[in-house]
Fold these 4 entries.
Entry 1:
Amino acid sequence: MNPSEFINIGVLIRPHGLQGNIELKLDYPAKDISALASFFVEDQPIPLPYFIENLKQLSQAGHYSVQLEDISDLEAARKLKGKKIYCLKSELQQLFELKNQGEFSDDQLMGLELIDRQNKKLGKISDIFENAMEQRLLQVLIGDKEVLIPFVENRVLEFNEKKAFLKYDIPDGLLEIYLD
C-alpha cells in the first residue's frame, strides 16, 4: 500500500476513561457505524491498521468512544492522542455519507500550492471551510495573513495533484481586501 490509497476521516482526540478507550471524531457521518471494523492511524511511512473491539456514540455528533485491539490502558491510549485516522479511499463511499463536493474533494485540495492566473505562488491551502450558504472557502496563508478564497470549480485553471498545485482564477480585488 502507498500513502495515496488513504484518505483522512477524522482524529483520535483523547483517552476516554482508564481502560484504553479513546474518543474519536469522524469528519464524515457514518452510514452504519457498526460496519467500521478497523481504521488506519497516522504513522510513517504509511498509516498502521488498528482493529475496533467496541465503538459507541458519545453525546456530541460525530464523536465516538472506541476500544482498539491491543490498546488496553490509559498510557497506550495517550500515545494515540491527536493522531489522524484514515480509511482506504476505496472504502470511503461504502462507509460514509458524502456530500457531493463536485470534481474536487477537500482531501485533494488540502496542502496544494495555490497559484494565481499570473502564475504567482500565493501559499499552501491550509484548511477548507464551508460557510452558511454551503460554499467552500479555501484558507491560504499569504505572508502573515490568513486569506479565505471562495472555491468555485469553474474558476480552476489547472489542477495537478502530482505536482501539488492548483492554478486558480481569484476574483479581482479579493486579495487586496486582505492584504492592504
Note: The mean pLDDT is 85.
Entry 2:
Amino acid sequence: MGKRSSSKVTKFRRRNIRSPAPGLARQHQFQHSLKPLTSFMLEKGMLASGLMATQLLLAPLAIAGPEGGVVVSGEGSVTKVSLLETHIAQESQNLLMNFDSFDVAVDESVLITQPNAAAWFVGQIVGGSPTAIFGNITANGRIALVNPWGVIFGETASINAAGVFASSLGLNTEDLFAGDGATFQAAKGAGGYVVNHGLISASLGGEVTLLGETVTNTGVILATLGHVNLASGSRAVVHFGSEQLIGIEITQEVLENNAGLKAAVSNTGTIDADGGTVMLTSSVSKSLFDYAINNKGVIKAKEANYRNGVIRLFGSGSSVLNTGTLNASSASSDGGLIQIVSNENVIVAEDAVIVATSETGS
C-alpha cells in the first residue's frame, strides 16, 4: 500500500536491630521497580506532564499480590499458596471478582485455573490506586483486569492466557455477558491509562485488548491468528462473546488528557498478530492530544496458515501519525489489508515502512 498524507539519641544502649518485615521490604522493592518505568517514559517524551509520573512513583502503596478478592458473580476462590504465589480457582464459566488491589511484583506469580479456554475471569480493582504488574500471570482461559485508576504492565511483566483484556475505563454494567454488551466509562479525575512495557501473549487464535482514555505499548504483544485491539475513548460498549471478545464500540470521545500523554494511542513496541487483525482506534476531543494515534513501532499481521492479515489505524479528533512499520505481507497469496484513516490528517513519514504485498508482487 502506498504512502499517504491527508484528510513519573541520646542514650547509647544495646538494641536489637530488626530487618524490615518481608511485606515492607517487598513494598520498597515494588516501588523501586516503578522508577525506571517512569524515567523511561519521561525520557522518551511520552509524558507531557508530571501527573502520571507521580502516580507511578507513589502507587501502589499496598503489599504486592492480589488482595481482597470477593466474588460478585460466578464461583471461584483465591488462595495464597506462598508469599510469592497466588492461585485463583475459577469454577464457573464466567467469574467476576472485586479486589482492593491486583499488583504483582517482579518475583511474584498468579495462576488462574479455569474450566476451559473460552472461560472469562474478570478482576475489578476498586482500591483507588493503579494496578502494576511486574511479575507473571498465567491462565488457561481468558482474563480481564479493570481499574479506572490505570493498569500498568512493567518491563518484567509476562502475561500468558487464551485472551487478555485490560481496561482503565470503569465497568458500569454488572452483567458483563449480556447480549447487549457491557458498558465501560471513564471515571472523572482517575488515571484512565493502560500501559504495556512487558510481554502479553494470547494463545493461538486468541485476543489482546487494551482499552482506556490513553493506551501505550512499548513492549511486545503476541496474538498469532488472533486479534489485537488498542482502543481509546471515554465510554465504550464491549461485547464479550463465547468464542472471543466480539467487539468494542467507542461511544464517547476522550474529554480529558489525565495522563498528560502526547498521543491517545501510542505504539513504540512490537505488535505481532500474523494471520489475524490489529486494530488501533482512537476518538478524542480536538486539540486534546497532538495525535489520536502515533505508531513508531512495528505492527505485523503477515499471512499465516493461508490467512492474510489486516492492520487498521482509525483516528478521530486528531491526526494519525505513522513513522514505524506496518507489515501485512504474504508469502503464499495476495497481500493483506492496511488502512490508515483520520477525520483530521494522516501523516506518514518518508522512512516509514508499509508493506501489504505478496512475494509475487500482488
Note: Confidence is low (pLDDT under 50) at residues 1-33, 35-51, 57-63.
Entry 3:
Amino acid sequence: MKNRLVEYISQLKKVILRLFKLTLRLLLIFSLPIMAGWWSYHHIARLGTVIDGDTITAMYQLKPVKIRLSAVNAPELYDYGHHVKQTCGQESKDELVKLLNTKWLYVQRDGDDKDRYGRFIRAVFTAKLIDVQEELINDGWAVPQYHSSRGAVYHELHQAAMEAKRGWFDRENNCKPLIAEGPKVD
C-alpha cells in the first residue's frame, strides 16, 4: 500500500510539473507581444477561405467576416464588363492561397475600417509575421494602392516586380496588368 502511495505521489508531481511548464510557456507566448506593444495593434484571425487575390474570409472578432487586404489591388477573377474569366485573377488567388498556408493570421487595421462593400480593410500577416501584401507585390500578383498608409512603402517592390517581369508582368497579352494608383492629391 505504501509503495502504491509513493508511486501515485511521484506521478502527481510529474503531472504538476508538466502543467507548470506549460503554463509558463503560455505566459511567455502571450506576454512577449504585449510587452513589446505589438499586441495592441494586431489581432488574431482564423483563415476561412481565399475569395480572390486581395480578399479572404476569416473568423475575426468572433464573427465570420470578409477581409480586404489593405494597400494592394489584385486582378479580379471575372471581368464583368467583358463577361470573361481573367487568367491572372485565378493565378493571383492561387498565389495568395500559397502565402496563407496557415490557419491563423495577424490582422492590423490600416486606414478606413471598412470599404464600400462592407469588407474589413486590414493588413494581413502570416503566423510567421510575413507581410502578405508585400509578398504579393514583390511576386508581381498585386499593385500598391497609395491612399493606404503602406502604399508608398510598397512602390519600390512594385517597380522591381515590373522590371524583373515577375507575376503577371511576364505575360504577353494574357491579362492586362493593373495600374498602381498614384498618391491622392487634395
Note: The helical segments are 2-36, 87-99, 132-138, 155-164.
Entry 4:
Amino acid sequence: AFGCAEITRSIKYVDSYDAWADAFPFGGQPRTEEEDPDGRGIPNWLRYAFHLDPVSPDRAGLPWFSLETINGNLYPQVEFQVPFGVDDVAWVWEHSADLTQWTEMAGNTEVEEEREGSLLRLTIRSADPLPPGGHFFRLRMSRVTFP
C-alpha cells in the first residue's frame, strides 16, 4: 500500500505508553517517557514508538536509512517497525540540504507496509532521486492527541 509520509496506526495491540511500560519489567529503572534507563541515548518514548525493550541495550529496532538504486538513480528510503495499536505517535520523514531548514517529504514519497507478527514494518521511499550534492534525512516523531 502506498500513501503519504505521515504514518499513524489505529489497529489495537498496544494502545498507550502506559500499556507498553506495563508489559516490560523495568527492574526499578525510571518509567517516565523522557528517561533513558540504560543510558544509550534512546528515551523511553522512542522505545515505545518503535516497540523496543526499555532496559535492553539492543538498537536493532531503530530506523535505518539506505539508498535504493532504480534505473541507475539513487532513491533515499527509511525503514522501521512499529507495533500495532500505537495510534498516539506520528512518524514524519523530513529532508534538508543544510541541517537547519527541514521539509516534510509527504507529497513525494511511497510507503510500503508489511506485517511481521505483531509488528508492522514500514518502508518510506522518496519518489524523487537523490539530488546532486547530497541531502540529509531524518525521521521526526510527534505525539498525536485525540479530543
Note: Residues 1-13 have pLDDT under 50 and may be disordered.
